[in-house]
Amino acid sequence: MWSAHRSLRELAFLYGVQAAYWDTMDRRRGASIESLIAVLQCLGAPVSSVRDAQPALRERRQALWRRPLEPVTVAWGGDPFEAKLRLPYDWEEMEFSGYLATEAGDRTPLRWSLGQVPFEELVEVEGARYGVKRLRLAGGLPCGYHSLVLELPSGTASSLIISAPRRAYLSPGDAARRWGVFMPLYALRTDSSCWGGGDFADLEALLDWTARMGGAVVGTLPLLPTFLDELFEPSPYAPVSRLFWNELYVDPRAAPELDSCPKAVALLQSSALEEEAAELRRQPLIDYRRQMALKRRVLEELSECCLPERAEQLRHFIRANPNVEDYARFRATCEERGTPWRSWPEPLRQGHIGEGDCRQDALRYHLYVQWLAFRQMESLSQTGRAKGVALCLDLPLGCHRDGYDTWRWQNEFVMDVSVGAPPDSLSVRGQDWGFPPLHPVRMQEQGYDYYIGCLRHHLRYAAVLRIDHVLSLHRLFWIPEGASPAQGVYVRYPAGELYAIVALESHRHRTAIVGEDLGTVPREVRRSMARHGLRRMYVVPFELSPDQAQALSMPRRDAVASLNTHDMPPFAAFWEGLDIHTRREMGLLTASAGRREWRYRRALRDALSRFLQRAGLLPDGLPGTEAVLEAVLLWLSKTPVPLVLVNLEDLLGHRQSQNIPGTVDEHPNWRRRAHCTLEELDRMPGVVGILHRMDDARKEEKGERASKKA
Question: Which of 144, 154, 268, 395 has the most CB atoms within 10 Å of its CB?
Answer without folding.
Answer: 395
